[in-house]
Specification:
This protein has 281 residues and is mainly alpha-helical. It has two domains: 42 residues; 208 residues, MetI-like (MetI-like fold, Orthogonal Bundle), CATH 1.10.3720. The longest helix has 41 residues. It is 84% helix and 0% strand. It is globular, with a radius of gyration of 26 Å. It has twelve helices and no strands.
């Protein structure tokens, strides 16, 4: 027995070795995919630059990547881009929080109180089908050119995806688990807290990931209609001046911020829903 134990320590089993090798391959495969994506991006930028230079495309029609980078650097270094980005992100985050909370509470209410689905749900769907571009002027008239109008526009855009995913997640809960809690004399609040909401969390985060992207779009739409400051205002000003390099630089800044917000929510989802295989990969 002692000899066998010494052999097992000296020579690990093939299964353990294979597991260790597979664990080493996963980070390598991930880093390879990142490098491959980065290579495609660099190649695309190089091709873009080459086409602009070879065909001598005027900058007022389509800017070169170097011009876009220079415009982005100047805007960030001067502080103009960051100041207006802070205003836009305030609208995005405040409206997102308000809309997500409203969608979550309304979704819980519709599932737990069925009469609300017949009374409120048709009006929510009707409001969602109206384009936000058509609602934005009304928000400007009612709430002015400040942050309030844009926050309400963002909140209306964010509410619906969170509402739909909350309803879907709570209704997808295993009925046997609900019956078990009720058989143990559990209240409806306990069913909601311990069964329905935890089971619906992956669905809710899917709605939040969608809503945060819509929040950025809605904030820019609101700023296009009427605002004193923000990334949307800078885009309009650069567009009127035919400064397409600045327009592209602002779009790069805006899209990078949206991607960062989406990645942050995906990271949060993996931490909160670590027990679920339905979290966004």
């Amino acid at each position: 027995m002692a000899l066998a134990n010494e052999k097992s320590l000296a020579f690990p089993s093939p299964r353990r070795g294979a597991g260790a090798m597979s664990g080493m391959k996963r980070p390598l495969a991930k880093s390879t995919r990142v490098l491959e994506a980065l290579g495609y991006f660099v190649g695309l930028i190089a091709l873009w630059e080459a086409v602009i230079r070879v065909f001598a495309v005027p900058p007022y029609l389509f800017p070169a990547p170097t011009d876009v980078f220079v415009a982005l650097w100047r805007g960030v270094a001067s502080g103009v881009y960051l100041t207006n980005l802070a205003i836009t992100m305030t609208e995005v985050l405040a409206g997102f929080a308000l809309g997500a909370l409203a969608g979550l509470l309304l979704g819980i209410g519709i599932v737990t109180i069925p009469v609300l689905e017949r009374v409120l749900y048709p009006y929510v769907v009707a409001l969602q089908t109206v384009p936000k571009v058509a609602i934005a002027p009304l928000m400007i008239v009612w709430f002015g050119f400040g942050l309030q109008s844009k926050i309400f526009i963002v909140a209306m855009a964010c509410m619906f995806p969170v509402l739909i995913n909350t309803i879907a997640g709570m209704r997808a809960t295993d009925s046997d688990r609900i019956s078990l809690v009720r058989a143990m004399c559990g209240s409806e609040f306990q069913v909601l807290r311990y069964i329905r909401l935890p089971s619906a969390l992956p669905y809710i985060f899917a709605g939040l990931n969608t809503a945060i992207v819509l929040a950025v779009i809605s904030a820019i739409v609101g700023e296009f209609v009427g605002a004193r400051a923000g990334i949307g205002v800078l885009i309009l000003q650069a567009n009127f001046a035919l400064d397409l390099a600045s327009v592209f630089a602002l779009l790069v800044l805006l899209s990078s911020t949206g991607v960062a917000l989406n990645l942050a929510f995906r990271y949060l989802e993996r931490k909160v829903c670590f027990w679920s295989g339905k979290s966004t990969k």
